[in-house]
Design goal:
Blueprint lengths: L7 E6 L8 H10 L3 E6 L9 H8 L10 H6 L2 H7 L2 E7 L1 H8 L6 H8 L3 E6 L3 H5 L1 H12 L3 E2 L3 E4 L5 E5 L3 H12 L9 E6 L4 E4 L2 E3 L6 H12 L3 E6 L11 E4 L3 H11 L5 E4 L6 E3 L18 E3 L3 H6 L6 E8 L3 H11 L4 E6 L10 E8 L4 E8 H18 L2 H7 L15
Parallel strand pairs: 1-2, 1-3, 3-4, 4-5, 8-11, 8-13, 11-12, 13-16, 16-17
Antiparallel strand pairs: 6-7, 9-10, 14-15, 17-18, 18-19
Helix pairs in contact: 1-2, 1-9, 4-6, 5-8, 9-10, 10-14
The structure holds cytidine-5'-triphosphate.
The site of cytidine-5'-triphosphate has 14 residues, from helix 12 and strand 16.
């Protein structure tokens, strides 16, 4: 059963070049069990034919507010009530502007006004149009009204420019929608605590020690865990990433802050995934005033930070503990040593170097576990790697019996079996 099983989605397609990706999005949503009704704007028909959407969705496309046959089958108000989600992908600048002003002069805008379901938009347009204050004001207004913004991503655009405004890829949109709506999945009822990003260790009020971690891998793992039905808490160091849908985020700065937040959030956690690049050292005496330069060299006295991962693994009733290892050489040997030394259930190792992994969208992992087991994942986009990693974590978690032990210690109040609470 997919994580969108039984969910009903209206997919609004508007007239942008990214509409060529929307049939693939329909397929991704249906693969996860959703029923998809496509509603096209007049502009969308310039890019993709209704027959394509009919073939992939298994339903006749609706594109006309005044279509007697369509209205007789399911009137627009009925259609608006039918949906659990109205997703507009791609959402053009014009569609966003019309939704923001509450227009209802075609079927899609009418549905956006008439629905009480969740509404999500995946903008797609040229970078200058996206950055325009009019578009930004319209988007801000829609967000204020509870519309969920999915993307846009950045990169090469159909117009030949590079920048923000690309529609997110169908595979990523599929995962985000699952996170938004999904309650099913192998981790339903389970709490997953994830750390991500770098930490910053203060030297003085204007300087700090940090590292090149972007947090992308941890955020992708958080989205994947949410899509698998888990309650997800994401403890994040300083990163510039949007919070994945449905995930609770706790922002921290230093290793000490992260340690405090993790210990605070740990009760009730069944799986702990430590993707953060936590600083191993911090200035022993951070100062309150800016350090002024002198002619002589400056010595910084550094002291060790707490190893948060090892601290979690040492808890008497610990969750299933997953660590990461960033290595420049002898990846497998170092990772296996870390697995044993920190007493982990599983470790995901990657090779890092000047041009590898950090700040990148792609990654490849070597995953190791206790009885000598190993599995490679990738290379591929971090979103996909995260999903595969999560599937492996769930498999190992079940095999080690931790899941069963957790389930046997707790009974749901309504009598249904529930994954239990480890404190
Ligand atoms: N970690 C942690 N707290 C720290 C340092 C690291 O929780 N103070 C976690 C990271 O989140 C990661 C794992 O430990 O999951 C491995 O971190 P890494 O820095 O690669 O390994 P170390 O054990 O610190 O060894 P070394 O730096 O010598 O490679």
């Amino acid at each position: 059963m997919g994580s969108l099983s039984g969910k009903k989605i209206i997919l609004g397609v508007t007239g942008g070049i990214a509409a060529y990706k929307s049939p693939d999005l329909v397929r991704r949503l249906r693969e996860q069990g959703a029923e998809v009704q496509v509603v096209m704007s007049a502009g969308a028909r310039q890019f993709v034919t209704p027959i394509t959407f009919q073939a992939v969705s298994g339903r006749p496309v609706r594109d006309d507010l005044w279509d007697p046959a369509g209205e007789a089958a399911m009137g627009h108000i009925e259609l608006a009530r039918w949906a659990d989600l109205v997703l507009v992908a791609p959402a053009t600048a014009d569609c966003i502007a019309r939704a923001a002003t509450g227009r209802a002069d075609d079927l899609l805008t009418t549905l956006l006004l008439a629905t009480e379901a969740k509404v999500a938009i995946a903008p797609a347009m040229n970078r200058v149009m996206w950055a325009h204050p009019a578009t930004q004001a319209n988007v801000a207004l829609l967000r204020e009204r509870g519309v969920v913004l999915l993307g846009p991503g950045s990169g090469a655009q159909a117009c030949g420019e590079t920048g923000a405004g690309r529609m997110l890829e169908p595979v990523e949109l599929g995962a985000r929608v699952a996170a938004l709506l999904g309650t099913e999945g192998p981790l339903r009822g389970c709490r997953v605590l994830i750390t991500a990003g770098p930490t910053r260790e203060r030297i003085d009020p204007v300087r700090f020690i940090s590292n090149r971690s972007s947090g992308k891998m941890g955020f992708a793992v958080a989205a994947a865990a949410r899509a698998a039905g888990a309650e997800v808490v994401l403890v994040a160091g300083p990163v510039v990433l949007p919070t994945p849908e449905g995930v609770r985020r706790v922002d921290v700065e230093s290793a000490a802050d992260m340690h405090d937040a993790v210990l605070r959030e740990l009760p009730g956690t069944q799986i702990y995934i430590s993707t953060a690049a936590v600083a191993d050292y911090r200035p022993a005496q951070p100062v309150d005033r800016k350090i002024k330069k002198t002619e002589s060299a400056l010595d910084l006295d550094l002291e060790r930070t707490v190893d948060i991962l090892a601290a979690v693994a040492a808890q008497p009733q610990r969750p299933f503990v997953v660590g990461f290892a960033a290595e420049t050489n002898d990846v497998e040997m170092h990772a296996r040593q870390k697995l044993t030394r920190k007493n982990l259930d599983l470790i995901a190792a990657n090779e890092v170097g000047d041009d590898k992994v950090f700040e990148k969208d792609d990654n490849a992992l070597l995953v190791l576990w206790r009885d000598g087991g190993r599995q490679g994942i990738g290379p591929g986009p971090k979103t996909l790697i995260a999903r595969e990693l999560l599937a492996l974590i769930v498999k190992r978690w079940r095999e080690t019996g931790a899941a069963a032990a957790a389930a046997s210690t707790a009974a749901a109040p309504h009598g249904l079996p529930q994954l239990g609470i480890v404190r």
